[in-house]
Amino acid sequence: MPRVCFTLQVDPERLDEYRARHARVWPEMLSALAESGWRDYSLFLREDGLLVGYLVTDDFAAAQAAMQASDVNARWQAEMASYFVDLDNGAPDRSMRPLDEVFNLEAQLAADPAARSAVETGDSS
């Protein structure tokens, strides 16, 4: 199942407000995300405002499109836009900058039976 990691930039002067807004996300927004195929979705925020998002989904483009078609997402994005800087497309959900995955431990262990065996037996030599 594809994993997606993306970045955005939160205004460093509004970090506390941004955190507070995400401590109480609207229940209908949570439902819309889940129904649109966003699973294991997390946001991580650095002290300089770098926001890193991570999710698992069957089809990221379809999951994004489903959210963009939802009324609750339009309202949420309109309210959240002021927290961000350097939005490429006017709304946070359209300005996500997906990152290329360059390493995945589980994938490499699955591809290398000898490495998997070493992990399972505790042989690190």
How does this model look, in words?
The chain is of the alpha+beta class. The chain has a single domain, classed as 2-Layer Sandwich (Alpha-Beta Plaits), CATH 3.30.70. The protein has helices spanning 15-23, 27-35, 60-68, 71-80, 105-111, 113-121; strands at 3-10, 39-45, 50-56, 84-85, 97-98. Strands 1, 2, 3, 4 and 5 form a 5-stranded antiparallel beta sheet that branches. Helix 5 (105-111) packs across helix 6 (113-121). GO terms for molecular function: L-rhamnose mutarotase activity.
Number of domains: 1
Following the backbone from N to C, one meets helices and strands in this order, namely: EHHEEHHEEHH
- Count of alpha and pi helical runs: 6
Basic shape:
elongated
Q: If you consult CATH, what is the topology?
A: Alpha-Beta Plaits
The CATH architecture assignment turns out to be 2-Layer Sandwich
The CATH C-level name is: Alpha Beta
Strand content: 15-25%
Question: What's the end-to-end separation, in Å?
Answer: 32 Å
Extended strand count? 5
Overall average pLDDT: 91
| Rg of Cα set | 18 Å
Uncertain spans: none
SS-based class: alpha+beta
Level of helix content?
40-55%
Largest sheet: 5 strands, antiparallel
Keywords: Isomerase
Protein name: L-rhamnose mutarotase
EC number: 5.1.3.32
Pfam families: rhaM (PF05336)
Overview features:
about 120 residues; alpha+beta; Alpha-Beta Plaits; 5-stranded antiparallel β-sheet; 6 helices; about 40% helix; elongated
